[in-house]
TrEMBL record:
This is Phosphatidylglycerol--prolipoprotein diacylglyceryl transferase. Belongs to the Lgt family. Pathway: Protein modification; lipoprotein biosynthesis (diacylglyceryl transfer). PROSITE patterns: LGT (PS01311). Its EC number is 2.5.1.145. Its main location: membrane.
């Protein structure tokens, strides 16, 4: 068993102001995505200015934060927030939904694409390889907060989390998600997008592989206590929300490669 590295969730304090690692991870994810976007923007559209790219990052960040928070409220704990709406603003305590953030980013990108004369999936293909950096950083934030831990286990790398009332050795599922949703997904998308691909292909790869990775990790991650398992003693809300992503990813790839395949087999 590995010892959990006790890290103070607060990076530093300036009087009443506290800077939390969880919030800092979001800044790292957004800042890193901005830097990666700057490396890719010439191939995407050499006419884009620095101001245009900054505008895009602003809208993406807005979609992540607002969509992620509202998604958590709606998908995972509506009753608690209904009784105390002020909890919605307490982002430093955790409680962000990837799927809500994903919907928020799509809506913001749809608005941005219309405003700048871009096709929606053209823009989504551009930003998809940037997202895993933020996902990975967010999972490190979950680990530091000692939240979203996994099921009890006897694997050699199990950990006892200070927030666990039972003090059982558990899967460090946050690190599994960091490795899959952050590192592995970044490598897949970055390598895949380095060559010209038909529109929707990169977006399809993102939706498919994120959905698969998240669906698998949910088998060893504890469900949210206020929801528990939703069916058959093992199905979680995360898995249910991932099924449309997996199906949508497959459909996007099918549409993206339908015409190239038809051209290959035409006489």
């Amino acid at each position: 068993m590995l010892a959990y590295p006790h890290i103070d969730p607060v990076v530093f304090s300036l009087g009443p102001l506290q800077v939390h690692w969880y919030g800092l991870m979001y800044l790292i994810g957004i800042g890193g995505g901005w830097w990666l976007a700057a490396q890719r923007v010439r191939a995407f559209d050499p006419n884009w200015t620095r101001e245009t790219l900054s505008d895009l990052i602003f809208w993406i960040a807005l979609g992540v934060i607002v969509g992620g928070r509202l998604g958590y409220v709606l998908f995972y704990d509506l009753e608690a927030y209904w009784h105390d709406p002020s909890l919605i603003l307490q982002i430093w305590r955790g409680g962000m939904s990837f799927h809500g953030g994903f919907i928020g980013v799509m809506l913001c990108c749809w608005f941005f694409a219309r405003r700048h004369g871009k096709k929606f999936f053209e823009l989504m293909d551009f930003i998809a390889p940037l997202v895993p950096l933020g996902l990975g950083a967010g999972r490190i934030g979950n680990f530091i907060n000692a939240e979203l831990w996994g099921k009890p286990t006897d694997v050699p790398w199990a950990m006892i989390f200070p927030t666990d009332p039972a003090q059982l050795a558990r899967h460090p599922s946050q690190l599994y998600q960091f490795a899959l949703e952050g590192v592995a997904l970044f490598i897949i998308l970055w390598v895949f997008s380095r060559k010209p691909r038909p529109m929707m292909a990169v977006s399809g790869m993102f939706a498919l592989w994120y959905g698969v990775f998240r669906f698998l990790v949910e088998f060893v991650r504890m469900p949210d206590p206020q929801l528990g398992y939703l069916a058959w003693g093992w199905v979680t809300m995360g898995q249910i929300l991932c099924l449309p992503m997996i199906l949508g990813g497959l459909l996007l790839l099918a549409f993206a490669y339908r015409e190239p395949l038809m051209q290959r087999f035409r006489p």
